[in-house]
Amino acid sequence: MLRCDDNLAFSLSNLETKRFTTSDTTPRRSSKELTTSLVNAEKQKLLDKGAWTKRVADEMYTEHKEDSQHRSNLARAAKHINTAAAESSELDTQLKQERQQSKDLTSKTTRQQEETQILQAKIDKIKKAAFDCTVSQWSKWTKCNRDCDEGTQKRTRTVVTKAENGGEPCPALVDKQSCFIKHCERCGDAKVVGQEECDDGNRKSGDGCSDICHVEPGWSCNGGSTSSTSNCEKCGNGKIGGLEECDDKNFKAGDGCDDSCKVETGYVCKGSPSKCMTLDEFREQIDAEIFNKRQMCHADHHKELFVTNTDTGAGQCIARPSVDFEGGKSSHLEQTSVTEGSSISGGTTAVSRVISTLSEPTMLDSVVDINGKRGARPYAVCRSASNKMCVPSKNADGQSVRVCTIKASVTCVEVAVDKRFCGMKGDDISGKVVFREHAGRTDFDGNVCVFKNCNVPSTWYTPEGLPIDPSSWCYHVAVQAATDTLDNTQAIRTLPIRANTTNGY
Length: 505
Known about the structure:
This protein is α+β, with helices and mostly antiparallel strands. It has helices at residues 4-21, 31-47, 51-128, 279-299, 475-483, and strands at residues 134-135, 150-156, 159-161, 174-180, 219-222, 231-234, 267-270, 275-278, 303-307, 315-319, 331-339, 349-358, 379-394, 400-417, 432-435, 447-452, 492-494, 499-502.
């Protein structure tokens, strides 16, 4: 026989067997429902066997129920734990994200603070920096405050920003300038304006300019303008003034200066009181004076005369230009000009000029070198010296002209040729190889064959087959010097000139 415990265990075992061997044809229920149904069925069977069995079964089934409940609670707890764990993981991730965001925000805040500090430093620097004053553009000039003579007008500007922290202060805000509309016509103010004939700075009569600024009879006034006082002189007092051309301290005509103090035709007048002479006398006097002084300069270490005194023809001696022509030049010029009075007064003028120049090379087939080769292109160093004097005079029509005389001389200093034509046997004259700066006409070393005073060998002939005259080397220079008036106005009359060509060095 089975005991109650064994019987109960058997029932439970049988319960489990039935649990898993239920026919598939039974409608399928949930595992919990199936188990409860089977347990209740077996419980009922055991209850039917007696009270003791019922009690044991109740205890066992109560334990089973509690165990099932416990397991259910454990499952729910596990589910809650898993859910809490998932939520905890999500919260942890969220916390990490928030921590990273906090970290990023802190870093951003730090950078912003640093940038704020830098910006603040710049602001402080700007506040401490020096700012210059700035002003507006100038306004237009105001109207001149006077209707005649010199007045003033002004313009203004305003401050746009003031200077700060030691910046450049504001410049002047008001500017003034002189203005002029016309001259005021006031006799006696030393300005010839409007209907005034003269104005000597006073309103007294008897001095050439009357109290109403008209020229008085027997007087002449000149020089008066809006910027200069009239200069009035009376003809015959020995002083040239006003419109006088001369004043020989008399009122006689026929002596070169007529009774109205005008230069007579065919005469030249110089100085004050004026000394008048005929044109021929003037030429002879100037020729003699210049000739003597030039001879003195030639004796003084071969110098030339530069006239500095227009009355006497006196001057100073200057050194002649060099025979070298550096920098590719082919000529040297020294010139002075002296005028009695201002440059536009029309007074006696003296012009002195000294020129050294290289003539153009000339092909001479008559010249051969030691090897019998030709191709010589000799050229000359020419020097011209001229002294010109021009004085005011009158022509036959009574018109004012300037009459000039000129003394000129031309010297051929030397003839130069390629050094291979130097020292030829049989030549009656030998050249000398020297160093010259002759505008690229020498050899690479600057050497050239030179014949002093332009005396060349008699075996040299012109291209036409004629003997060579030493003066012919500088003939073109002599022609220019002899006809050079140093002026090109129609009022000039050029007197006969002698162009002296010498062989002196």
